[in-house]
Amino acid sequence: MLFYRAALDLSPRTRTFVADLIRGHRRRIGSRWRVLPPGRQALLVHLRRNETFSALAAAFGVGLATAHRYVTEVIGLLAELAPDLR
């Protein structure tokens, strides 16, 4: 369970959208196992805007490198949807 000190403004629709992107990506690359399921990874990425990677890693029970990799992965997936924003 994740305890957080403030209300989150991530809508269920947005979280589902990002989680579906992650799910599809994992299927395409043949990823068999990850520490966090897609929905939790989407939440981790959303929280990155206000938190350090160290704080995120601790809150989600993952390593620092894993937190960074998860955020970078989702940024890449979102950037693929709008190539001219890169």
From TrEMBL:
Keywords: Endonuclease, Hydrolase, Nuclease. One of its GO terms (molecular function) is endonuclease activity. Residues 43-83 form the Transposase Helix-turn-helix domain. This is Helix-turn-helix of DDE superfamily endonuclease. The lineage of its organism: Bacteria, Bacillati, Actinomycetota, Actinomycetes, Streptosporangiales.
